[in-house]
Amino acid sequence: MSRPSNRAERSPTVTSARHLMFDDLEQLGDILAVASDITREFVQGADDMDVTCRDFSAFDPLRPMPGQGRGALDALRAAKEEILPLLAASIGPRYLGFVTGGTTPAALVGDWLTGAIDQNATGPEGSVTAAVEEQVIHWLCDMGGLPRGRFDGVLTTGATVSNLLGLVAGRQWCGQQIGVDVDADGAGALPGFEIFAASPHASMIKDLSITGIGRNNFTKVATKPGTEETDIADLKNRLAASTSKAKLVIASAGTVNATDFDNLVAIADLCAAFGAWLHVDAAFGMFAALDDRRAHLLSGLDRADSITSDGHKWLNVPYDCGIFLTRHINVLETSCRAFAPYLQTEAVGNMYINRGVENSRRFRALPLWMAMRAYGRDGFTDIVRANCDQASDLADWIRDHDRLELLADPKLNVTMFAGPGSDDDNRALLSRMNATGKLFMTPTVYGGRFGFRAAFSNWRMRDHDLEIIKDTIDSVL
Ligand SMILES: Cc1ncc(COP(=O)(O)O)c(C=O)c1O
């Protein structure tokens, strides 16, 4: 029996507006070919585009929605004309803001496929998605040098949500230690929950607010002079002085500015001694484990109770993709479980719906899986090593420059520096650098000084890009 044509077989209930969708389905090949051309042009052209767009006044956010559409090809044309010229080339090599990964070709097509197949990756019912996510989590553990059997986890929308899960699971575990079920009875039932952190990332502060703990409600631990690293003696004193029975320590493996790594072995020892949950924010730092020159920085990570990491930064998969790992998956599943008769299943496998914030979930394991299959461990190792070398190269150049000052030696992939003059002079200098369209950097304040961050996390960065960056800085100094 031949398959009915998408165009021909229309029931009277299909309105003319919905015919547009069936017509689009019929000509999907043409639509994808146009989309493919547009994508190729954008992705391959990203090296030569202005790195950021500074004027998007041509786009009217208040324009009314069309009553009648004209189908996908028309929308593609509109996107190409009205949106694409106004984008940042953040997938290109000289976007040095935040910690922004690009997208490798395999990850890109993995993401395309993810949209096309549109699985709801909740669990093992009727689709292999859960098994793929499980495999990806195993591979991620291998990449981070973590023993497979010890950690399990879930893919999230980003490191911010992974940090949130660390707080939620840690709080639940702390309650369990003293006979309080936070999941059932609420955080109010937990007497005196104390959080200790030296250099929590901004996302963690946000998560303290979201969880109802409170942005200001953590014990600030001192940092070692001139670093963002936890002062171990101070942490020990503060843990010893605490009267709280529920304690959680937030440590860092790669801070966002100085890329400092905490002494995780010492912190894990203290957490064991004082009965505290150890959460490590290793959003991008976890992948330093791939670089044999830096893997030692992660000693002790395997003793963390929970770990935040991220795919859309250094693994160069498209947004969004965060990673959460824990040694206590049952605790996480207690805090995040979704219960309703219609959600029950007999299928065997991990129920990712019970491991995070969302119930319905994008199949975000697929872009990661594609990139891992396509490039292997060696591919990611090369990205990490190259980006670290580039950060060092820029730092060396700044050190020798008579008008620039290096704010800290980069330990990983971020170079922080400042130009001559006051903070205001430096703000103006940053604007001038970014206005060239040749690079994009974000501001920071380090050691009380206003400066610039150049974060190297893109697989496309090559030597000649570094030369362009140096020439551009010189041209506006
Ligand atoms: C150390 C660290 N943690 C957490 C985050 C938050 O990541 P995301 O924006 O992907 O949620 C970042 C982002 O740069 C980071 O560097």
Q: Can you walk me through this structure?
A:
It is a single chain. The protein is α/β, with parallel strands linked by helices and about 475 residues long. The protein has 2 domains: about 20-90; about 110-370, Aspartate Aminotransferase, domain 2 (3-Layer(aba) Sandwich), CATH 3.40.640. The protein is built from 14 helices and 11 strands. The chain has helices at about 15-25, 30-45, 70-85, 105-115, 130-145, 160-175, 180-185, 200-210, 230-240, 265-275, 330-335, 365-400, 425-435, 465-475; strands spanning about 150-155, 195, 220, 245-250, 275-280, 305-310, 320-325, 405-410, 415-420, 440-445, 450-455. Helix 2 (about 30-45) runs parallel beside helix 3, helix 4 (about 105-115) runs antiparallel to helix 12 and helix 9 (about 230-240) packs parallel to helix 10 (about 265-275). It is globular and about 70 Å long. The mean pLDDT is about 95. It binds pyridoxal-5'-phosphate. Pyridoxal-5'-phosphate (PLP) binds next to helix 6. Pyridoxal-5'-phosphate binds near residues 158, 159, 163, 201 and 281.
